[in-house]
Amino acid sequence: MKWWQNAVIYQVYPRSFQDSNGDGIGDIPGIISRLDYLEHLGVDAIWLSPVYDSPNDDNGYDISDYQAIHPDFGTMEDMDRLIVEANKRNIRIVMDLVVNHTSDEHQWFVESRRSKTNEYRDFYIWRDPVNGGPPNDLKAAFGGSAWEYDEETEQYYFHMFSKKQPDLNWENELVRQSVYTMMNYWLDKGIGGFRMDVIDLIGKLPDEKITSNGPKLHDYLQELHEATLKGRDVMTVGETWGVTPENAKLYSDTERHELSMVFQFEHVQLDEQPNQSKWDIKEIDFIEWKEVLTKWQVELKDNGWNSLFWNNHDLPRVVSRYGNDSEYRIESAKLFAILLHLMKGTPYIFQGEEIGMTNRTIESIDEVDDIESINMYNERLDEGYTHDELIHVINIKGRDNARTPMQWDDSRQAGFTMGEPWLPVQPNYKEINVDESRDSSDSILNTYRQLIKLRKDNPLVVWGDYELLLPDHPSVYAYKRSYKGKTWLIVANVSGKVEYLVSNVTNSVGDVIVSNYNKESFDPKEAVLEPYEAIVVELLD
Ligand code: TEU
Ligand code: CA
User: Which DSSP string do the residues of 118-148 spell out, in sequence order?
Assistant: First the structure.
């Protein structure tokens, strides 16, 4: 068994986690000061969103120096100390590896754009204009063309994200070797691995309009593994938006020596109109949602490994998106925790999820920090959408929803900063904060602690087979996990209404293992489920 197979990973978005010096920006000394909290929670690793030097066009996902720490976050000494202090608490630091692109302020690009003959020219993707315009009609994820014209040398460069995030040319061997050298620099420091940003894009062939899953993608990853990961006890998780189960097996089959696992986003995209963008939303079909989650559980059961998550720094808060963040906030937050943490794979918790933090509500575009939301707003306003429509969808899907400061206590600015936070603290911090949750056995936080411990203590949670029950039920999600003659039943009423459940599960029932209503018994043949009730019981013969 690998350490990451029964591990739980906690994602820290450093800007918003803990400020230590009153400048309103979370930093590495702040994270160190909260390691005891994470140890108490029981997590095995921190996925640290980027802390490298960056002009912050995309909050650090635009890196100008992979081997320097942004002064806002601290120094390299702070970073080294974080690794050591975390390791003391059996927590590993998983770094964010953003190598599909760099910042346009990275030295490689500064050189590359100088002249067509510069030795770094081919580190990026440069093309001549076609008919006086861009080489083709590929679009960037943050709006507009993926090609940006550069006066200096009268060519276009390629960028999948903002124009300050030029894509590296992975076909260039020197690019790949430079990335591997940089990765080894970090691995030698004793980090626990990498989360690989949009890694499925590195094999792109922009001239053929192939962006994800390019033909050489898996070759590159095997080469990368050989040059960096081989022989080291680390984990890797690739961010792969369009991945299919077949492809996920190629990445995560241990025999192939690529990655430990990937993030798949199929369940996350079920609220989008087919073939449109994340902003074109529709109601989620609950039955389809269960089907998709089940498909991934079943398909990756033998070769491959799943990562399990509801939200991250790009996605809305789970309790607001799928649950009920007012009347049933506590119940529904616990329900989604239970559903996810009883599945097979490695669970990820995004900071604040464990206390049921909610989406942010804005009224004006001036309140928005996120480049993706701002660009979409301006683009769509020109296309004739109304201000109200756009603000509405930003409130539902915008990335700032997850990026508000961590709510530690009920003091000024929720204990996040002594100064003015870079993004406002949510007004609900007086009720929703770590301090309030820590002492209460009924808290969401305590449910997370309990679930993490369950995974550690029960091989069934890590290895058990998964079987969906009641696939057509319109509001109940029920599944079984079985391992070595033992079976657990997980039942969740994903609705705000009382549900009378009748099923053909005729087994007698053992102990209640988890219940978000503190129930002491449960009869699966016939049960009354409270709003957002979730329960885990052992099934006997
Ligand atoms: O996100 C990848 C990505 O495709 C995003 O554009 C995603 O579709 C969008 O944010 C969903 O709202 C990664 C990082 O997680 C994100 O923060 C970065 O902005 C992006 O890559 C570029 O590095
Ligand atoms: Ca700070």
Answer: STTGGGB-EE--BTTB-SS--B-TTSSBSEE
